[in-house]
C-alpha cells in the first residue's frame, strides 16, 4: 500500500515559463494594495484602465439581454453574426476598411487573449519574433511562452519611435516569422502615418513576415483620423490586426476584442482559440453591438474629458522635471526623466515614497524606456489635482 510522504510535493514549472515572470502590474498592484492597507493612500497613475463608464445604452443593452432566461448558455466560438456585423460596420465607418463579417473578423475575449492565440497558432521553437523596444511587455511573454526566439527592434525618440526598416533589412531575417507592431504606440504615444504603414507592408512582403498590428489606441486624443493597417493596399496578404473596446469604449473589464484579416489565417487561429474558451457571454456581445454603433459624439465627449486630464498630468510630470514629448496619442503621457535621476525606476520610487503617487517606470517596456516614465490619464480630475499638489509639496526638485 502506498503511504503518504511527509515531504511536500514539488511540481516543476514547465520550461516554457523559464524566462517569463509574473506580469509587472500584477506584482505592482499587490504592492500598492499593501501600502494602501497600511494607510498610505497611493494615487495610482500606472495602469490604463478607464475609470469612466461605458455609454448608458451599452449598460442598458447588457441589462436587457441578461434579463432573458436564454441568454446565459454557451455561445459560438466565432461570436454572433450581429457582433461580427457590428465590428465590420465599425471598421467601414471609422477606417474605410471593408471586412467580410463571416470570415475576416474573429471576436476575442480581449485583444491580449488574441496575442496569445496568434502566438500559439503560428510560433514554435526555431522561429524568431520581432518585438518593439520599448513595447507592451506581453509581446515578449507571448513569444517566450510559445518557445520562439525574441529579437528586439529599436524605437527611439530621434526616429519618432518608428523602426528603422532599412537597418532591419540588413540583418538576417531568414527565421523571422512574425513582427509585432503597435500604432498609435504604447507606451510612447507615437503615431504612424499611412506612408510608413505602406513601407511596413512592403517590408513584410519582401521578407515573408507576418505582421500583427495591435491597434487599441487610435480613438483617444488623436488629432487625425484613426488608421487601420488593413487600409494599406496589399496589407491583408501579410497582416493581421487586433483591436479592442477596452480603451475606446471604456470596457476594459468586459473583455471584448477582435482579430481581423485573411480568412485562412483566422481559421487557423480559431483552431487554437476553440480549444481554449467556450465563447463570449451573449449579453456582453449584445452590449458590444450597442457600443460599436456609437457615433462621433461619444468620442468627442470622451476626449474632452481626457484633454482636461492631460493638461493636469503634463503639469505634474513637468513639476518633477520630466519632459513630455508633444503630440502623443492614447491614455498615457510618456516623459523623459531629468538628469538628477538615474532612470525611470529611480524617479518612480522617489515620487512614490515622497508624494505617494505611482508613475510607471519606462524600463518595464524595454531598455530604450529606461530614461522615461509613463503616467495614466485614468483618474478623475479631482484625484489628478490632488496628485499634482502632493508632488508640488513633497518632491525636492520642485521646491528648489
What does this structure look like?
The model has no long low-confidence stretch (mean pLDDT 93). Strand 5, helix 7 and strand 6 form a beta-alpha-beta unit. This protein folds into 2 domains: 142 residues, Aspartate Aminotransferase, domain 1, CATH 3.90.1150; 239 residues, Type I PLP-dependent aspartate aminotransferase-like (Major domain) (Aspartate Aminotransferase, domain 2), CATH 3.40.640.10. It is of the alpha/beta class and 400 residues long. Helices cover 39% and strands 14% of the residues. The relative contact order is 0.16. Helix 10 packs parallel to helix 12. The longest helix is centred in the C-terminal third of the chain and has 24 residues. Strands 2-8-7-6-5-3-4 form a 7-stranded mixed beta sheet, sandwiched between helices. A 4-stranded antiparallel beta sheet has the order 9-10-13-12, with helices on one face. Strands 1-11 form a two-stranded parallel sheet.
Amino acid at each position: 500500500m502506498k503511504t503518504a510522504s511527509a515531504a511536500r510535493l514539488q511540481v516543476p514549472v514547465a520550461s516554457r515559463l523559464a524566462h517569463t515572470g509574473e506580469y509587472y502590474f500584477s506584482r505592482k498592484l499587490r504592492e500598492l494594495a499593501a501600502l494602501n492597507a497600511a494607510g498610505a493612500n497611493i494615487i495610482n497613475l500606472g495602469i490604463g484602465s478607464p475609470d469612466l463608464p461605458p455609454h448608458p445604452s451599452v449598460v442598458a443593452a447588457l441589462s436587457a439581454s441578461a434579463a432573458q432566461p436564454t441568454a446565459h448558455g454557451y455561445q459560438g466560438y466565432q461570436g454572433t453574426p450581429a457582433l461580427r456585423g457590428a465590428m465590420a460596420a465599425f471598421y467601414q465607418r471609422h477606417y474605410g476598411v471593408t471586412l467580410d463579417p463571416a470570415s475576416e473578423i474573429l471576436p476575442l475575449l480581449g485583444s491580449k487573449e488574441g496575442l496569445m492565440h496568434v502566438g500559439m497558432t503560428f510560433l514554435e521553437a526555431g522561429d524568431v519574433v520581432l518585438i518593439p523596444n520599448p513595447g507592451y511587455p506581453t509581446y515578449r511573454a507571448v513569444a517566450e511562452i510559445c518557445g520562439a526566439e525574441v529579437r528586439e527592434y529599436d524605437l527611439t525618440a530621434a526616429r519618432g519611435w518608428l523602426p528603422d526598416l532599412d537597418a532591419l533589412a540588413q540583418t538576417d531575417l531568414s527565421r523571422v516569422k512574425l513582427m509585432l507592431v503597435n500604432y498609435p504606440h504604447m507606451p510612447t504615444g507615437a503615431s504612424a502615418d499611412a506612408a510608413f504603414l505602406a513601407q511596413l507592408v512592403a517590408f513584410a512582403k519582401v521578407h515573408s513576415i507576418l505582421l500583427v498590428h495591435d491597434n487599441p489606441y487610435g480613438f483617444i486624443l488623436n488629432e487625425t483620423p484613426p488608421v487601420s493597417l488593413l487600409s494599406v493596399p496589399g496589407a491583408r496578404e501579410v497582416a493581421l490586426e487586433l483591436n479592442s473596446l477596452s480603451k475606446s469604449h471604456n470596457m476594459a473589464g468586459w473583455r471584448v476584442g477582435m482579430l481581423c484579416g485573411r480568412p485562412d489565417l483566422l481559421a487557423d487561429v480559431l483552431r487554437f482559440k476553440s480549444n481554449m474558451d467556450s465563447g463570449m457571454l451573449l449579453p456582453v456581445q449584445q452590449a458590444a453591438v450597442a457600443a460599436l454603433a456609437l457615433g462621433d459624439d461619444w468620442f468627442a465627449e470622451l476626449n474632452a474629458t481626457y484633454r482636461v486630464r492631460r493638461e493636469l498630468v503634463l503639469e505634474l510630470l513637468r513639476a518633477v522635471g520630466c519632459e513630455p514629448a508633444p503630440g502623443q496619442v492614447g491614455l498615457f503621457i510618456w516623459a523623459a526623466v531629468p538628469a538628477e535621476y538615474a532612470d525611470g525606476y529611480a524617479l518612480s520610487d522617489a515620487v512614490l515614497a515622497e508624494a505617494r503617487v505611482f508613475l510607471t517606470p519606462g524600463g518595464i517596456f524595454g531598455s530604450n524606456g529606461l530614461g522615461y516614465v509613463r503616467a495614466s490619464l485614468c483618474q478623475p480630475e479631482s484625484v489628478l489635482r490632488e496628485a499634482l499638489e502632493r508632488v508640488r509639496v513633497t518632491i525636492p526638485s520642485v521646491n528648489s
